[in-house]
Specification:
Blueprint: H1 2-16, E1 28-33, E2 36-39, H2 40-56, E3 61-64, H3 65-70, E4 84-91, H4 93-97, E5 104-111, E6 114-122, E7 127-132, E8 136-139, E9 142-143, E10 155-159, H5 167-173, E11 181-185, H6 189-198, E12 203-206, H7 211-223, E13 227-230, E14 246-249, H8 252-265
Parallel strand pairs: 3-4, 10-11, 10-12
Antiparallel strand pairs: 1-2, 4-5, 5-6, 6-7, 7-8, 8-9, 12-14, 13-14
Helix pairs in contact: 1-2, 6-7
Length: 266
């Protein structure tokens, strides 16, 4: 766990932070549209982590966001027998591009579809959250507990950002615009999961399933005592093929409430 944390911190220090608020126009490229950006920091940090993590665990594979964009067959590793590192080098690239510190580097270690450990690092905010299956979650060395919302509280829920959703997805997510719930567009998915694990956010409702966005955070939430699930009532599968939307929440009751509203509109 400690060696991976060192590798994550080093990748951010070498490849990400020197470019924060220092990007030139040619350092930023659109992938699938004006809201889907990649920078030189994303690419170099993923290359750095790919080398470092496979050195730490010989025989392991890496599923990184940028590698999958270049070659979708990289995703096949999630179905294989080798341990897999799931990497999002800069989660919240749009925030990074705009000089907003709300971005993170996400790393998870999975085997046969089960996430074993995760690291969520927000270098510009000085936050390192780690989780290990069955052993708990910590933020900067302090144990994390999500707790439960009070029965009278309005639920704060982060949802898929409208810039990245279809009309049908917007219609389903609109079911959360009801009494007792205050939905808002999400920022960095990884940091939204951290907000749940800290008890600062009550739930999420996401309509996309890229493993690099969710694997680290879902383990973090579960190890902090939270819950998650899809509208089909099934656990989220990092290999894909999930019924969407899905939720992560501070507790089981909150997750059920969010999923009930989403399923009724689906």
């Amino acid at each position: 766990m400690a060696a991976v944390e060192v590798a994550v911190r080093r990748a951010a220090a070498d490849e990400i932070m020197p470019r924060f608020r220092q990007l030139a126009a040619e350092d930023i490229v659109e992938k699938n549209g004006p809201h889907d950006l990649v920078t030189v920091a994303d690419r170099l940090a993923e290359e750095h982590l790919t080398a470092a993590l496979t050195d730490l665990l010989p025989g392991s594979r890496v599923v990184g966001e940028e590698a999958v964009h270049a070659d979708p067959s990289v995703l096949d590793a999630l179905h294989g027998d080798a341990p897999v590192w799931i990497v999002d080098p800069v989660d919240g690239t749009r925030q990074f591009v705009h000089g907003d510190p709300g971005f993170a580097t996400l790393v998870a270690l999975a085997h046969h579809g089960e996430v074993l450990a995760s690291w969520t690092y927000a270098p510009a905010l000085g936050l390192m959250a780690v989780a290990r299956r069955g052993a708990g979650a910590w933020l900067n060395g302090v144990p994390l507990r999500a707790g439960s919302p009070s029965s009278a509280a309005v639920l704060d829920v982060a949802t898929s950002h409208y810039d990245f959703t279809t009309d049908d997805q917007k219609r389903v997510l609109a079911a959360l615009e009801t009494g007792g719930i205050a939905p808002r567009p999400c920022g960095s998915a990884g940091l939204e999961y951290l907000h749940i694990a800290r008890g600062d956010l009550d739930a999420t409702a996401f309509s996309w399933e890229n493993s690099w966005d969710h694997a680290a955070g879902l383990l973090l939430v579960h190890e902090a005592g939270g819950a998650s699930g899809t509208v089909a009532g099934q656990p989220f599968r990092i290999e894909g093929g999930n019924a969407l939307p899905f939720t992560a929440a501070r507790d089981t009751a909150t997750a059920r409430r969010i999923l009930g509203l989403l399923a009724a509109a689906n």
